[in-house]
Amino acid sequence: MVRADKGAVLVVPDLGVPGPALAGPVPAQPTPAEPVRAALARDGLAEHDEGRVVPAVGDYVLLDDAGCVARVLPRSSALVRDTAGRTSLTQVLAANVDVVLVVEHLDPDPDLGRVERLLTLAWRSGATPVVVLTKADLVPDPWGMAADVQRVALGVDVHAVTATADEGLGPLRAVLTPGTTLVVVGPSGAGKSTLVNALAGRAAMPTGERRADGRGRHTTTHRELVPLAGGAVLIDTPGLRAVGLVADAEALEHTFADVAALAARCRFSDCAHRSEPGCAVRAALDSGELDERRFDSWRRLEREAAYQERRVDARLAAAERARWKKLTAEHRRGHRPVPRA
Ligand SMILES: Nc1nc2c(ncn2[C@@H]2O[C@H](COP(=O)(O)OP(=O)(O)OP(=O)(O)O)[C@@H](O)[C@H]2O)c(=O)[nH]1
Ligand SMILES: [Mg+2]
Ligand SMILES: [Zn+2]
């Protein structure tokens, strides 16, 4: 099985898992060449260019005889984030992942809004999210804190772990079945690489000390595939600074199933949940059934998703206009009177 990794391809042991068939020569493992980068350079593509499928970490790729990427195979899932760049709207963080481990530290306190944001990203990817709360050893009541996080992670398994002492990793190891791909996402310093190393049973990724203010140092600077002896694959990623959301209504409804259920009970289907009569969301906020933080978080992510959608629409419209302009110009050229000889 050949998969795209940081600028190269990596041969992941083929364990007879149903997957795309490979054509062409399979390079010896690990591949020292840089076929992915070569393909990008050849085609003049940036890593997150749109309009062409550019290999991302985790992609299955077909190589040509020269060992260059000839084709990226269709993705079963893709973890995508919004980029603020002008030339590109989205960036594929990882492709063909089965499980997204949303990694959040217990010390400093977990950021519930960030967990909700990453869960939405994960739901949208098509993979199954799992929340991993790290540094359980640094807090007196990790289970109480995990219960608080569980309240915002509906329908998602939440585990508190101490990766440095190999505590609480059992349920995660159970997920590492042959052929399964997991990606870790979360802020810098949360302990993603430490977790990857603990699950891999070797120091596959360098880890970093936290700064005095508890923030991370952005130790991991690229995304990397880490194949495990048992046949599962982990993808480590750099700490996400600000994660732009590429959400859709469905992903948000997954993350905020409680709010969505309330909103469905409002008298008006286009209720803005401000002061409309018969607003079930307002009633839940007033009674304390729904807390303001979660409501605000939902609102913010909904706004972002709507903005993202408008941006995509505007881009599509601009592309369509450009296409027509080109067609019209070609048409005119085609009908230009031929000068007499
Ligand atoms: N006490 C304690 N420290 C931990 C635990 N997990 C990770 N750490 C420490 O947290 C620091 C940051 O860990 P990393 O694994 O480098 O964090 P990261 O999420 O990969 O960070 P970036 O690569 O910057 O995104 C290191 O000093 C780890 O030893 C834990 O369970 N308990
Ligand atoms: Mg790291
Ligand atoms: Zn309402």
Explain briefly what this protein structure is.
The chain is 32% helix and 17% strand. The chain is an alpha/beta fold and 341 residues long. α2 packs across α6 (249-255) and α6 (249-255) crosses α7.
Residue share in helices?
Answer: 25-40%
Class computed from helices, strands and strand pairing: alpha/beta
- What would the principal axes of the Cα set say about the shape? flat
Radius of gyration: 23 Å
Spans of at least 5 consecutive residues whose pLDDT stays below 50 are 14-33
Bound molecules: guanosine-5'-triphosphate, magnesium ion, zinc ion
- Share of β-strand residues: 15-25%
Order of H and E elements:
EEHEEEEEHEHEHEHEEHHHH
Oligomer: single chain
**Spatial order of the strands in the main sheet?**
9-8-7-10-12-11
